[in-house]
Amino acid sequence: MDPDPDPDSKVQQQLDAAMPWVGLYIAAASAVYILAMAADAFNGFRRKKLWFPCKYTALNAASLTVLAVAMKLPMDLNTVMINSETDSSAKFTSLSLMSSALNNLMPSLGSMNDKELLANAAGLSILVITVTVNMAIQVIELQRSLVHVTILCAVMLVSLAMLVSLAVSVSEMKRRLKRLYHGELVLQGFEMEDQRREMMKYWVMAESSCPQFVVARSCVCVASSVITSFFYIIDTLVHVLNGTSTNEPGKSRPMEFTPSGF
């Protein structure tokens, strides 16, 4: 008579059986956020506002919750990256999504008051730092994909630093714009043609004084987007070149993990 199976093993099997559903949940959260960013981009093109105002992906509790779910894989220390290329790619893609989200969220800072800026920036910073620390623990312990993860995390932290710097300065930017706008608002003593010209100038000023527009056209926001795009292009090229040089026919990577082997 065979001995009874280990109860712990049975529980582990039951937990493993639920993992595909967890993966679908994470994929759904990622898809929702990507579609929201795509909707903002579509609205920007449709309204000819190429600074892409944040309507569906504004920095708030809802977007932070969706991002936290989408970042479940890089924050999970139990998912070993050496089991397959799929595990590694899923974690790396999540880091890329976070960096893109950080740049996409920057214009929405202009629509917040001081308390909202502090709370949302603090929550986002905690999430990004947690993801970075967990990924650092994994690559240090496994000694694998160190350069790739370092680039992704560095870009993510740079984007976070620029977002926080914008959050600190956006209140003063808004107050300065308000003073300039109200200081030039009164129209008097002009001829009809002068009034028409002045009204057109003030309309343009009011349109361009939209807080999200001011933040989106700031040098910090533009620099963050350029830096992120540049490093991701370089990282993609390096990753592709490394993949073509290491994935030779007839060779496969080891599926088991032994600490002494690294």
TrEMBL record:
The chain crosses the membrane at residues 20-38, 118-140, 146-170. The keyword Transmembrane applies. Keywords: Membrane, Transmembrane, Transmembrane helix. It comes from the Eukaryota. This is Uncharacterized protein. It comes from Salvia splendens.
